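Reminder: ligand-aware prediction takes two inputs, not one.
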Amino acid sequence: MKKVALIGLGAILLGASLTSCSGGNKVKNADKPLIFYNRQPSDPQTGDIDMKTMNWNGSTYYVGFDAAGGGAVQGKLITDFFAEKNKAEVDKNSDGKIGYVLCIGDAGHNDSKARTKGIREALGTWNNKYDAGASNTKEGVIHCKDGDLVVVELDSKEMKGTDGSTWNADAAGNQMGNWATQYGSVGTNELDMVVSNNDGMAMGCLNNSSFPKGTPIFGYDANADAVAAVGKGDLTGTVSQNVDAQAAATLQVIRNILDGVTGDDVVKKGITEKDQYGNKISAEMTYLSETKALLAKNVAVNKANWEQYKEGSRDTGIKKSNAPEKKVLLTVYNAGDNFLSTSYIPALQYYDKLLGLKVTYVQGDGQSETTCLDKFVNLDNYDAFAVNMVKTNSGQDYTEKLKF
Ligand code: BGC
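Here is what comes back for the chain with beta-D-glucopyranose:
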């Protein structure tokens, strides 16, 4: 894929118009920066990127992380774990098979799809389907130190709460109870591993009293509680999607555009090179011009490196700026989402002050878009918008509101 290339002429023109507007002219809402983050505008079924929304104006971007790459990192984390074990250590009932269960986050979310695929590909169970259920998988193989074992996905489930919210940790915990009965030592004793599309659900499983102690279990996100659990040896591994780099980049792109930065520099300044205030994100970021997506890297976290990912390690490359204060309205799809509430928002709240951005945080319930849209109001009062949609195909509901 083509990396940093031309950003549309629109961005250049808009940058110029924002600069000239600092003289007192009012910028139309339709011309203000619009950054989607964490939930990429896309078709929930196919995963195709919603380019109509992404091309809303020259200052529309997505900031996230390399979802497909992350799925592969999670898959490798798991296969690396088995590569260091003897068969007898991991195959509980010595039937020559590794049986695993999978917690799916949100079937319509690109991150969730990428992880399901990455896990199944690494284990050889991928059968060209993202859907939940063993019937959508095939038998795979895994390499151990002393030979190979067959791999079977015993079951998988999209974890929806009773309220309809996705990535639901409680639903995962309850399901873990069922799986333990069905496939654990009181059942067929074929459950050798638990894999989850995120840490919230993995911790839900781990904290369920019937979780078969000592069973390898893998999550994703490197939330503080999950990293601590890796340190204690309870969670086998997780993946960092580099939340600090993402949060800082979401705000930095806004800062750049509002400062009148134009062209490629919008996705470079303060990101891959120093901006006028001397700021630069330390982690590696990649820009994909064809989808207008600025992406952070993923890193596998396990017993060997967990200490580097402990709570509170912030990016020292971002320091205080003397930039004029600007106002941002930012939506969060679900106030109850583990990753957003314990990792992403605290990071945003740390960097917003440093970048001179006064951010108004509004949060939805994770099920109905209107819980966010109803708070996406008084738009004239803001200089820029950052949006985290409930449904990834709701982009136009937000851009419609910006027309006025
Ligand atoms: C995270 C999940 C989170 C979701 C919310 C994903 O990138 O890994 O934990 O629930 O974003 O959109």
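Residues 1-23 have pLDDT under 50 and may be disordered. The first strand starts at residue 34 and ends at 37. We will return to this case in the review session.
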